[in-house]
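Input structure tokens:
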């Protein structure tokens, strides 16, 4: 698993914390905006729907008032007054009929705030074709309508006339309700002011824009200038007007075929979110401001103590158990941890010393056992030689042999050290070879090639003798004369010493080359197994023994090069 430093981890923590607050702010802001927009849209839509239905109801009332004034409730035919207005030729009767109809129309205008004016066109052949009534500020509009529509009516061009229609005027678009009565036309001017006032009451606030448009989005009139189309398909969407975003909400009237709605500025809808943004930003600034303080406190009270503990652990991992964390920390848990850690290190140090001393004792006992195992083995061989000489009654040779054995035995039984100087090991080898030369009548010889500067190196006792003895035992049995070569050299850095023992015999049997320590011991090769075990105890894995055949048995012994000046000679 990938490890991360505490400082880097804390840095990532603060970065993730800042990122979390940023994402949280955006999420809450977007959620709040959506919630407010949806709620506002629903409220406005409901209000506009109610207002639009009120407008529809008012328009239906206009139709009702007109029907009452122009139609007979019993026969559903045009009233007598309307008949006289259309057909009367007597001036007095015509004037009376016009006055009666005009009074009826005036009452409709008075009682219905949704009506600005009413125009009645009759297809008379004289100058009394039009009858009009309405507010004073609609006089000019009425004159322009009568002038414009007279030509259309006289020409019989009625294809463009609709039940509800828009007439474009210089003072603004006019929403007209047109009713055809027995070949004549009643034109009702729907109050733009009343429609906008009704829609305004349902809008979000006074800054909202209310409007009326046709089904294609063409603006009829609005409370403020609007340059773009207001199609019903944009219902519930934001549109851009003069660089500002507005939420379009409205209601399409099936009765009139018009689209009534309101445009609410986005900033007005979202102004309730400003307080939330300010509060959240203030809290975020406080958190950001506290971050450096928190980092300093964490650095001083947590990060630095942990770094000290980690540094101490690294020193201990290198083998130094004498170090401890001496500082006291303000955080109780860290202080308890450090105290427990120091106690643990002290116990580990004591246990390590105790274990080390026990291992030394065990190694000493093992070494003494192995060395004593070697000495009787060689001594038995020497006794066999003396026995052979006694059988031949060669007493003079026995005397020489006895003297050589005495010199050899002084080294064998006196020196119990783990390591001896290579020079003494070679001197011991000479005593041994003197004994073998006596035994085999100089048919065996050893040649030494070791530099003088290496003779002060320390080697395990009998390390050369064991393999020379092995060569004497096996090589001489296959050759009339046995030649043994002992060489030594050190590497360039003098870190390792390599000793080579080579003979001219038949070489090692394959079973020895392929055998392990335990198998060598079980097969009677105690000396070889002895050497390998002693090297393992003294040098651990830094020493090795290589046995091979190359014109005879070849043994390479590689051990650390320890010079006597660098050793603790007094300990031996």
């Amino acid at each position: 698993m990938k490890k991360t430093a505490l400082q880097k981890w804390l840095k990532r923590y603060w970065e993730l914390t800042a990122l979390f607050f940023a994402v949280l702010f955006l999420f809450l802001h977007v959620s709040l905006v959506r919630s407010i927009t949806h709620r506002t849209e629903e409220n406005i839509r409901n209000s506009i729907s109610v207002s639009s239905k009120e407008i529809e109801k008012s328009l239906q009332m206009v139709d009702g008032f007109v029907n009452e004034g122009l139609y007979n409730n019993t026969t559903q035919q045009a009233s007598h007054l309307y008949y006289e207005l259309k057909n009367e030729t007597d001036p007095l009767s015509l004037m009376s009929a016009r006055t009666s109809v005009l009074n009826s129309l005036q009452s409709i205008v008075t009682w219905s705030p949704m009506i600005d004016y009413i125009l009645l066109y009759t297809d008379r052949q004289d100058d009394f074709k039009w009858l009009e009534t309405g507010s004073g500020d609609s006089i000019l509009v009425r004159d322009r309508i009568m002038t414009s529509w007279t030509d259309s009516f006289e020409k019989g061009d009625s294809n463009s006339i609709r039940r509800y229609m828009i007439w474009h005027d210089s003072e603004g678009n006019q929403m007209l309700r047109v009713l055809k009565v027995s070949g004549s036309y009643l034109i009702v001017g729907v109050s733009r002011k009343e429609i906008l006032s009704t829609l305004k009451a349902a809008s979000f606030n006074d800054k909202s824009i209310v409007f009326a448009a046709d089904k294609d989005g063409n603006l009829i009139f609005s409370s403020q200038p609007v340059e773009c189309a207001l199609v019903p398909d944009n219902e519930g969407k934001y549109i851009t007007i003069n660089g500002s975003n507005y939420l379009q909400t409205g209601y399409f009237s099936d009765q009139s075929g018009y689209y009534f709605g309101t445009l609410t500025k986005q900033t007005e809808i979202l102004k309730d979110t400003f307080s939330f943004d300010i509060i959240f930003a203030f809290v975020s600034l406080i958190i950001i401001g506290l971050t450096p303080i928190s980092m300093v406190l964490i650095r001083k009270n947590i990060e630095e103590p942990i770094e000290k503990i980690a540094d101490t652990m690294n020193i201990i991992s290198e083998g130094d158990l004498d170090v401890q964390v001496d500082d006291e920390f303000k955080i109780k848990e860290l202080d308890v941890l450090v105290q427990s850690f120091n106690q643990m290190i002290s116990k580990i140090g004591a246990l390590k010393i105790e274990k080390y001393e026990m291992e030394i004792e065990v190694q000493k006992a093992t070494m003494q056992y192995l060395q004593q195992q070697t000495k009787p083995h060689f001594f038995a061989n020497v006794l066999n030689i003396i026995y052979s000489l006694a059988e031949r009654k060669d007493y003079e040779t026995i005397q020489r042999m006895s003297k050589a054995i005495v010199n050899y035995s002084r080294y064998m039984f006196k020196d119990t050290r783990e390591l001896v100087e290579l020079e003494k090991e070679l001197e011991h080898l000479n005593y041994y070879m003197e004994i073998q030369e006596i035994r085999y009548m100089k048919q065996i010889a050893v040649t030494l090639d070791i530099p003088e500067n290496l003779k002060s190196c320390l080697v395990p006792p009998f390390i050369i003798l064991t393999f020379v003895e092995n060569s004497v035992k096996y090589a001489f049995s296959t050759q009339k004369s046995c030649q043994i070569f002992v060489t030594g050299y050190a590497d360039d850095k003098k870190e390792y010493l390599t000793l080579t023992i080579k003979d001219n015999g038949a070489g090692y049997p394959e079973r020895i080359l392929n055998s392990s320590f335990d198998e060598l011991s079980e097969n009677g090769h105690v000396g070889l197994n002895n050497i390998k075990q002693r090297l393992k105890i003294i040098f651990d894995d830094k020493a090795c023994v290589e046995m091979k055949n190359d014109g005879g048995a070849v043994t390479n012994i590689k051990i650390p090069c320890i010079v006597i000046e660098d050793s603790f000679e007094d300990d031996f």
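The longest strand covers residues 244-252. DSSP finds 14 helices and 17 strands in the chain.
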